[in-house]
Write a structure and sequence with these properties.
Layout: E1 3-4, H1 7-27, E2 33-39, H2 43-58, E3 62-68, H3 74-85, E4 92-95, H4 105-111, H5 123-131, H6 139-150, E5 159-163, H7 170-179, E6 183-187, H8 194-199, E7 203-206, E8 224-227, E9 231-232, E10 238-239, H9 244-247, E11 253-254, H10 261-280
Parallel strand pairs: 1-11, 2-3, 2-4, 5-6, 5-7, 7-8, 8-11
Antiparallel strand pairs: 9-10
The structure holds NADPH dihydro-nicotinamide-adenine-dinucleotide phosphate (NDP).
NADPH dihydro-nicotinamide-adenine-dinucleotide phosphate binds at residues 140, 163-166, 168-170, 187-191, 194, 207-210, 228-231, 261-262, 265.
Length: 284
C-alpha cells in the first residue's frame, strides 16, 4: 500500500515554522502584512479569501481584506492596487481570481508590484521562475515540491509527468521539477497516447480538473502520484483528478483529496508573504 502523503500535517508543520519566524521579525518591529482583494460575491471566492485571512491571523500576520462590489470598474480596481503597492505595512497583495465579468484578470496581475506579487503570477515573476532565480514560488506547485521533499522523495533523474499546462499550476510545476533535475513531460488535452506516457512516470502530477481522470491502468507500480485537482464526484463529494481507491494500492506514494495539495497552497502563500516582508525590510 502506498505512503499516504499527509498534506494537512505537512502544511501545519510549515505554518508552525512560519509562525516562529514571524515572532523573530516582530521582535525587530516587522509584522508581515497581506492584503487580499475580493471583487463581487462569488461564494467559492469568499470561502478561499476567508481561509486565507484566517491562516494569516494564525501565524501572526497583519491581514487586510478589501471587499469591492461586482460593479467596481477596472480603473477603480487598479487604483486600489496602486494604493496597496505604495503602503509600507502591506508586503503581499493578491486579488482573488477569477474577477467578475467586465474586469480583466491579466491587467490586475500586471498592476501588482512584482515585489508584492505573492501569488507569483506577474510576468516578471514568471520570468524569474523560468530562469530559476525566483523570489516567490508559485503557491500550488511549490506546495507540491514541499510535499515531495518532506516525504523524502528525490526528483533527480526521475521521469516526471505533469498533466495540465495552465499558467498557475501545470507550467510552473514542470519548471520546478526541471529545476530539481527531473526529466519532465507536460501533457494536455491534445496529447496523444496520454495513458502510455503516464505509465512511464516515476512522479505523476495531475492538474486537470476532472474527477477520477487518472485511473489505475495509467500508473506504474511504485510511482509517486500527486493529485492537484479539486472536483466534485457524482455524489457531490470532494475528490481529486485521481481515482484514489484504485490507484492507492499500486502507487508508492499518493496525496489524498482533501488533505493533500490543498492545505499546502495557503501555507506557501504565507511563506511568500513572509519572504516579501523580509525582502522589503532588508532581512536576510
Ligand atoms: P485549467 O483548467 O486551467 O487547466 C487544466 C489543464 O488540464 C489544461 O492544461 C488542459 O489542457 C488539461 N486537460 C483538460 N482535459 C484534459 C484531458 N482530457 N487530457 C489531458 N489534459 C487535459 O486548470 P488549473 O490548472 O487551474 O487547475 C487544475 C485543477 O487543479 C483543478 O481541479 C483546480 O480546481 C485544481 N487546483 C487546485 C489547487 C489547490 O490548491 N489544490 C490550486 C489551483 C488549482 P489544455 O491546455 O489543452 O486545455
Amino acid at each position: 500500500m502506498a505512503l499516504r502523503i499527509d498534506g494537512k500535517a505537512i502544511a501545519a508543520a510549515l505554518r508552525g515554522e512560519i509562525a516562529a519566524e514571524v515572532e523573530t521579525l516582530k521582535a525587530r518591529g516587522i509584522t508581515p502584512g497581506l492584503a487580499v482583494i475580493l471583487v463581487g460575491e462569488d461564494p467559492a471566492s469568499q470561502t478561499y479569501v476567508r481561509n486565507k485571512q484566517k491562516a494569516c491571523q494564525e501565524v501572526g500576520f497583519y491581514a487586510e481584506q478589501i471587499d469591492l462590489p461586482a460593479t467596481t470598474t477596472q480603473e477603480e480596481l487598479l487604483a486600489v492596487v496602486d494604493r496597496l503597492n505604495h503602503r509600507d505595512d502591506i508586503h503581499g497583495i493578491l486579488c482573488q481570481l477569477p474577477l467578475p465579468r467586465g474586469l480583466d484578470d491579466s491587467a490586475v496581475i500586471a498592476a501588482i508590484s512584482p515585489d508584492k506579487d505573492v501569488d507569483a503570477f506577474h510576468a516578471e515573476n514568471v520570468g524569474h521562475i523560468m530562469i530559476g532565480d525566483q523570489r516567490f514560488l508559485p503557491c500550488t506547485p511549490a506546495g507540491v515540491m514541499e510535499l515531495i521533499h518532506r516525504s523524502g522523495i528525490s526528483v533527480e533523474g526521475k521521469h516526471c509527468v505533469v498533466i495540465g499546462r495552465s499558467n498557475i499550476v501545470g507550467k510552473p510545476m514542470a519548471m520546478l521539477l526541471l529545476q530539481e533535475n527531473g526529466t519532465v513531460t507536460i501533457c494536455h488535452s491534445r496529447t496523444k497516447g496520454l495513458a502510455d506516457i503516464c505509465r512511464q512516470a516515476d512522479i505523476l502530477v495531475a492538474a486537470v480538473g476532472r474527477a477520477k481522470f487518472v485511473t489505475a491502468d495509467m500508473v506504474k507500480a511504485g510511482a509517486t502520484v500527486i493529485d492537484v485537482g479539486i472536483n466534485r464526484d457524482e455524489n457531490g463529494k470532494l475528490c481529486g483528478d485521481v481515482d484514489f481507491a484504485a490507484v492507492e494500492p499500486i502507487a508508492g506514494a499518493i496525496t489524498p483529496v482533501p488533505g493533500g495539495v490543498g492545505p499546502m497552497t495557503i501555507a506557501l502563500l504565507l511563506k511568500n508573504t513572509l519572504t516579501a516582508a523580509k525582502q522589503q525590510n532588508g532581512v536576510e
